[in-house]
Design brief:
Layout lengths: L1 E4 L16 E4 L17 E4 L5 E3 L15 E7 L2 H12 L18 H13 L3 H9 L3 E6 L2 E8 L7 E6 L10 H8 L12 E6 L17 H14 L5 E5 L2 H12 L4 E6 L7 H9 L9 H16 L2 H8 L6 H4 L1 H9 L28 H14 L2 H10 L14 E5 L9 H7 L3 E6 L7 H4 L1 H12 L4
Parallel strand pairs: 8-9, 8-10, 10-11, 11-12, 12-13
Antiparallel strand pairs: 1-3, 2-5, 3-4, 5-6, 6-7, 7-9
């Protein structure tokens, strides 16, 4: 099982990431004229070998040099891929029950069994697939990799172009609730002049973007690629937003400061002064002179590094060892769910009730979590996404040296609530700072209306 590519005869055939299921792409001009796509014979990529063959079985030569084409994208998982997913869930070899009564050993056995029962019998991937395919999606080759992205233009004049970056363990599914409030703000309490054109790419190795075949695709390179993407789409001025790994990307875009980038917005800011960052990294006592707020966040980060980042340390050290998350859907789900929220409870601990939200989120349901997990499974990106932790060699919460205008939103259930004092030092051109009363690490997914309002306010002075 692989993916199919339908290409225009005017452009070279590009290889794309092999996935479980069938993915159809069409080629169009860089101007995205959707009515000009011309079809030729389909080509299938074998998911096991990566080899390309025409529908008649003949090998196809590839040449991707200097190809800047932008091709419409559509994904439909094959029935066989979904049947195989169910079979694997039902065939799970379960461990014994944990020996504690809390979640200190990880996602409880009862939680995972309940999730697996629902996933194999009641969950419907086709609903998530239809939602994704309701938005215009494209693929373009940047620096040797095919990059997938959603691109929705506003009907309002003078909409501000915005590129939004997801993180781990996420995907573009995190941000699709933002699309309508941002592109059509008048339906969601905004004004026509608040409108954005929205671009949401999948990071390399995640979702429908191609998996890097060699080292070097870290967040610095992604930052450069996102500017290339926005330039290729014809945007001469734009803004960027990110959380989790996306926050690293936009910080580095701010460091690189391409000419078209007006400002960035982050909900996971890198603000630690050098002495604070060094002390936390070394496990030393905090420097003298901290305010009560600064000391509280210092202690919180210290606790986080000691107790809650084991998953990150493993992926940073040995991502290739995670074979189990490519072989077992339940193994993948448990790995993605055991990502501690600020209250120290793995997200999986609250999944037994279908409509019960994640602690602190207010909105996410079991189906929404399974949408994201199933996307990881169907694209087999559990390991490839993990390699980003291995690629990254910098600090996590430290100030990166951003000199362009920056907007910051601080959500209360985030692992780290950046003090304004540190934020102003880290971002000397701070144009917006706000503390919210609800929302957590995945704020765009958890609180899309609130998050959309933040972006309108954050970038209002730049229009």
């Amino acid at each position: 099982m692989g993916r199919e590519i339908i290409s225009s005869s005017r452009f070279r055939l590009l290889a794309a990431t092999a996935v479980l299921g069938v993915t159809e792409l069409g080629w169009s001009s860089p101007a995205l004229a959707q009515d000009t796509t011309q079809s030729v014979r389909p080509v299938t990529i074998d998911s096991a070998t990566g080899a390309l063959a025409s529908s008649g079985g003949a090998a196809v030569a590839l040449n991707r040099e200097d190809d800047a084409s932008i091709r419409p994208f559509h994904f439909r998982a094959s029935d066989d891929a979904l049947a195989d997913l169910r079979r694997r869930i039902l065939a799970t070899q379960w461990p014994e029950k944990e020996t504690v009564s809390d979640t200190s050993q990880g996602v409880p056995l009862a939680t995972m069994k309940a999730l697996a029962a629902y996933w194999s019998s009641n969950y419907d991937w086709r609903k998530a697939e239809a939602k994704l395919n309701s938005f215009p999606q494209f693929v373009t080759n940047i620096d040797g990799l095919d990059i997938h992205f959603i691109h929705v233009k506003s009907k309002h004049k003078n909409a501000l172009p915005l590129i939004i970056s997801h993180g781990w363990p996420g995907s573009v599914i995190e941000q699709i609730k933002l699309i309508e409030p941002l592109t059509d703000p008048t339906k969601y309490g905004g004004r026509p002049e608040d409108a954005f054109d929205v671009v949401i790419p999948s990071m390399p190795g995640y979702g429908f973007s191609e998996k890097p075949k060699s080292t070097g695709w870290g967040v610095e390179r992604m930052a450069r690629a996102w500017d290339t993407l926005m330039t290729r789409l014809g945007y001469k001025r734009y803004v960027a937003q990110g959380g989790d790994w996306g926050a690293f990307i936009v910080d580095l875009m701010g460091v690189q400061a391409p000419s078209g980038l007006l400002a960035i917005h982050t909900n996971y800011p890198g603000t630690l002064p050098a002495d604070i960052n060094d002390a936390i990294s070394a496990g030393s006592p905090p420097p003298a002179g901290l305010s009560a707020e600064e000391r509280r966040e210092y202690d919180k980060l210290n606790k986080t590094l000691k107790e809650r980042v084991s998953y990150a340390k493993l992926m940073a050290a040995r991502p290739q060892t995670l074979y189990g998350i490519s072989d077992s859907p339940v193994g993948l789900a448990a790995w993605l769910l055991d990502h501690d929220d600020v209250k120290g409870q793995p997200a999986g601990a609250v999944l037994e009730a279908l409509e019960r939200p994640i602690s602190g989120s207010g909105e996410l349901t079991r189906d929404e979590l399974l949408d994201n997990i199933t996307l990881y499974w169907l694209t087999n990106t559990g390991v490839s996404a993990s390699r980003l932790y291995w690629e990254y060699k910098g600090g996590f919460w430290n100030a990166k040296g951003v000199k362009i205008p920056v907007a910051v939103s601080v959500f209360p259930n985030e692992a780290y609530a950046a003090p304004r004092s540190w934020t102003e030092r880290a971002y000397p051109k701070l144009i917006y700072f706000n503390r919210l009363d609800r929302g957590g690490h995945y704020a765009a997914w958890e609180q899309p209306q609130l998050f959309s309002e933040e972006l309108r306010a954050a970038f209002r002075t730049l229009r």
